[in-house]
Amino acid sequence: MKYPDILERFVSYVRIDTQSSDASETFPSTAKQKDLANKLKPELEALGLQDVQVTPWGYVLAFWPTNEAPSMRAVSPRNDGGGAARKVPTIALIAHLDTSPDVSGAGVEPKFHENYQGQDLVISESENLVLKASENPYLKEQTGKTIITASGKTLLGADNKAGIAEIMDALTYMAEHPGAPRPNIRVVFTPDEETGRGVEHITAAEIGAEYGYTVDGEKPGEIEDETFCADSLEIHVSGINVHPGMAKGKLVNAVKIAARIIDKLPKAALSPETTEKREGYVHPHQISGNVEAATIKFLIRDFTVKGLKRSEKKITAIADRVTSQFPGARSEVKVNESYRNMKVVLDKYPEVLAKAEKATAMAGLTPKRASIRGGTDGARLCFMGLPTPNIFTGGFNFHSKQEWIALEDMKKASEVLVNLMKLWATE
After folding, report:
1. CB neighbours (10 Å) of residue 45?
2. Of 75, 102, 117, 127, which sits 20 to 30 A from 308 (CA to CA)?
3. Which positions of the chain have pLDDT values less than 70?
4. Could you tell me the CA-to-CA distances from 164 to 6, 7, 27, 99, 105 in Å, in that order?
5. How do residues 290-346 score in pLDDT, each as one tens digit?
6. Could you tell me if residue 358 is inside a domain?
7. Is 176 a catalytic residue?
8. Catalytic residue among 43, 166, 192, 193
């Protein structure tokens, strides 16, 4: 049987619009995420995986027993009650179905820049969109490779459809080479990772694995064992609405108060555009409302909970100080926890990282541990009882119309996954 190759899979996935929505209260936040889920189900079945399902919540789940000696095998975690002792572990391979709410994922048309030679890449002349080598250091190292971008009207969707394609390609290799050692494998494709809700309706027990790996990183060779700690914060401002023709001394404009709060944020620090490496940030990403009531939504990020709380205290103080200058106005700050730094958990399980590093070296890459200035489903899964670091996809400029990935780096990610499965089955 001839299976699709990694490029064919990737192109077919990115052409399905799976953009999630921050504003939706449903789960998944957009029904179209299930369009990709329903495409993946028969593809997994064709590879020989078992218990393949798309759950009512939109998760794609599948199980593949180890091909080690019969005495080493485990039955499907859906049937063993989660308590069966086994010598060969179950390893979860995880990627997410959705693309960022920030940029359209409708009508993605991949462009192929073959035999790249270090030049700037024109993504779209009509949109005046150019991928500049001077602004993308790793791009300059891609000589001879095939660079894939979108057409300038959308993001590409390598975040995280490259991860899905790489997992599917690794499974394809193992299906075509039945002697390639593998542990028990649990495949998990999640909706709504981009909204921070990716594992909201699944448990570690339902996944049924000892360890997991999200395939959702960037630079080849990197294994990410640390994420931001993350909270979301909302400021609700209440004003007083009066007919503007009779408003003198009476009207209190919530829109102006919200704008003043944003204006009082630090200008040269504590924002995504002024921070890097291990610096945290405060990011007002949405403002809505009218004269009577306005809401500002923030993303708060720091590598420590202490830093997170320090930023939240600073914003609250700014809101209180500004609001006090408008008699009759009120402001209320609400904080919701999103996820915490997964390094706290992963440091207790050195083998899960050591095997990822060895698998990366086996593929001819230099393994490097890295921190994510963001988060993954793995961050939450770590604290749910499933230690889950993040493996590279090879993609860059996620959530952007300048998103790009090299085909050859996708193949390397697939190779690392095959190596990783071999190590878990045999060591």
Report:
1. 13
2. 102
3. 70-86
4. 10, 12, 20, 12, 16
5. 999 999 999 999 999 999 999 999 999 999 999 999 999 999 999 999 889 999 999
6. yes
7. no
8. 193
Question: Which has the closest alpha carbon to 421: 160, 215, 217, 220?
Answer: 215
Say what the pTM is.
Answer: 0.88
Is residue 96 domain-resident? yes
In tens, the pLDDT along 86-135 reads 489 999 999 999 999 999 999 999 999 999 999 999 999 998 999 999 99
Domain holding 258, by residue range, is 233-338
The verdict on 348 and 294 lying in the same domain is no
Q: Is residue 208 helix, strand or coil?
A: coil
158, with CB counted inside 10 A (0-12, 13-18, 19+), is buried
Is the same domain home to 124 and 87?
Answer: yes
193 is catalytic: yes
CA angle 256, 261, 266 (to 5 degrees): 140
| Strand order across the 147-149 sheet | 111-113, 147-149, 404-406, 395-396
Residue 263 sits in a domain of what CATH number? Answer: 3.30.70.360
Clarify whether residues 54 and 152 are in a common domain.
yes
CATH of the domain at 361: 3.40.630.10
Q: DSSP letters of 47-108?
A: TT-EEEEE-TTS-EEEEE---S-GGG----TTTSTT----SSPEEEEEEE--B-TTS--TT-
Helix spans in 157-197 (H): 158-176
